[in-house]
TrEMBL record:
Keywords: 4Fe-4S, DNA damage, DNA repair, Glycosidase, Hydrolase, Iron, Iron-sulfur, Metal-binding. It catalyses: Hydrolyzes free adenine bases from 7,8-dihydro-8-oxoguanine:adenine mismatched double-stranded DNA, leaving an apurinic site. Belongs to the Nth/MutY family. Residues 46-198 form the HhH-GPD domain. Its EC number is 3.2.2.31. InterPro entries: DNA_glycosylase, Endonuclease-III-like_CS2, Endonuclease3_FeS-loop_motif, HhH-GPD_domain, HhH_base_excis_C, HhH_motif, MIG/MutY. This is Adenine DNA glycosylase. GO terms for molecular function: 4 iron, 4 sulfur cluster binding; 8-oxo-7,8-dihydroguanine DNA N-glycosylase activity; adenine/guanine mispair binding; metal ion binding; oxidized purine DNA binding; purine-specific mismatch base pair DNA N-glycosylase activity. GO terms for biological process: base-excision repair; mismatch repair. Its cofactor is [4Fe-4S] cluster. It comes from Kribbella rubisoli. It comes from the Bacteria.
Amino acid sequence: MLDHSGSPLASSLHEPVLRWYDANARVLPWREPGAGAWAVMVSEFMLQQTPVNRVLPAYRSWLERWPKPVDLAAAAPGEAVRAWDRLGYPRRALRLHAAAQAIVERHGGEVPDDHAALLALPGVGTYTAAAIASFAFGQRHAVVDTNVRRVLARALTGVAQPSISPTAADQRLATSALPADEPTAARWAVASMELGALICTARTPRCADCPIRSRCAWVRAGSPPYDGPPRRGQTYEGTDRQARGRLLAVLRAASAPVSKDMLDASWPDAVQRERALDGLVADGLVEPLARKRYRLPE
DNA sequence: CATTCGTGGAT
DNA sequence: TATCCAAGAAT
């Protein structure tokens, strides 16, 4: 019998982290027992690069308006973009809408429980497919997000920060750290992620409150500082992304098609503004109409 | 493997 | 004030 529980060190983390989670997990709507796979899926899309606190209100109104995939699938994609509000990365709204349509067409309107089927949906990558399969269906998958990568980098590898971008090595490490049985693996997935979100944070980890500090390879090594290549910060002021955001904000706020003049007023640099607008149209986030008017896609 | 893609709170 | 960074995906 092959032992899938990985190294003794990894498996020694399970009990303390699971107990910590039972006592300290945040109460979040998508974790409620009756939430359902669609609720989990909506939350996962919104949480891709957006903090929990900003997601909560949008999540609630979204599910109230579109309680099932078929409801969203029947709506105009522009309505999804509008309801996305200012969560950021509005292409996620478009992809969630497209995923809802795919679920209706390919899966009878029910979120599939199969990892490969999930992965085939628009906007669902390795992380999100594993997250839905694990959180909504209790399956055993390595759910590797930025929190888990950081927890494992510190606890097992002994370094302050994980690699800048996810690697195959991260996946292997997370898989080797997975408890052998399915229900425990599913609990470990949320618990290790929550530990990264609340205790083993990027900036100032709260090691004093950490349930595995005595076993943590990084702490045992004296918490050495990060020594890898510089992590390049994201500038935002004056970027195309900011220009796109301004243009889209005008269109979200409008209930009727907007004139080009209106859009021109939202960003000073004409060259950049045109490039941003073309990009939005190419991405399907904006629909050009006759007489230089624009709206969210219908 | 590196870039692009929003937004705003925390430090 | 400037920087960091937050449950990634697509290209």
